[in-house]
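Quick question about two entries, pasted in order.
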Amino acid sequence: MRIRVPLSVEFMPIEGTDRYISGKTINFSREGMSFTSDSVESEPTDPIMIKFKLLKEFEYIYAKAVVVWKKQVSDKKFWVGVKINAIDKESRSGNLNFPFNMWLENQENN
């Protein structure tokens, strides 16, 4: 199940640069996410580090992921799909259930 959740996300290749690049999620699931960004140096199969917050009050969630696909949608915009391989232990709290709980609540109210 993919949930449309617009979140700010930052990512960087695990090897190479140590500078995070900003993006915005399109959708999110327990296995991965897709997002847009103005710059994507990584290619499919490249491992990346991702950090994002589900709410401003929450701490960053850090995850290791692999780029599954990348599509250039305009001169300066890319759409990227990643599979999450690992999430750090501190991030595996109830915060990760937040978007899914919101979605369920919305489904029950409609």
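Here is the second entry:
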Amino acid sequence: MASCSLCVSHDIIEPRNVQLDQAEEIYLPYYREITNYLPSPQSEANYTYYHLFCLRKNITPFICSIDKAYEVGFSSRETGDAMVMVMDIYKGGEKVILTDDILNFISSNINKFIDLYPYCLVYDISFESYPKDWLRAVLPEIECGRYQSGSIFCNFEGAADYNSRWDKSYEKINNVLCEWFKNGIISLEGVANKQDFIKKWNLVPISKRLYTPDWEFKFTRNGVDFLLNQIKGDNRLMLFIGKNDLIKTREGWLIKEVNNYKEVESIIISLLIG
């Protein structure tokens, strides 16, 4: 995807020059004019609620990299003849008074998140427990929005139900990943002796980049972990079978060295006939 794919221009009112105290709060380039001394829905504004929704979603991973408990909120301040939007940071429901260093750090980075509009962050690998390298390899294959650097963005501009559309998009991505992880769907880009690996573990393509095991017995709930370990040279098969007086286990885990899928199937069959 071209680097400019998330950078689009929109016909909105340019922010005016207002005297803002950047040392105390994080002011945004969004404002609503004050008409007859009061802001109203009819007064001119250069933003919509969807602008704020996008900014909150897009900047949250960055804010949480400072403190995982931080949350983003918005309020407004009267500055001359306009109500200017301010981004607030909360922790445990209480507004955080940021140090000058943190406030300047956020202020110096905020424009790159504002500029992502109208694209809205739906899925980011920094919040997920799946292996990060696996996510980077498979996320571009999910048909939902646009992929960029470990994240998926969607454009809900113009949709009144953008909140529910965001929820449905996240649910779709999460369900696909859950199914792929369980079934051992992986990318083999960069794997040495790729064709040998495919044959050894009886993998079949499901797209140009992704493969899945074609095994009669699905022996693990985390097929991805098993195959990624094989790529790294860890040939152990670990099966939890619980207490068994006839089979030597390690705290209920059967651990065997395996070199191909046939050896795996042989172990599974012997356990089933038992």
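Reply: Residues 1-23 have pLDDT under 50 and may be disordered. Residues 187 and 222 are 15 Å apart (CA to CA). Hope that helps.
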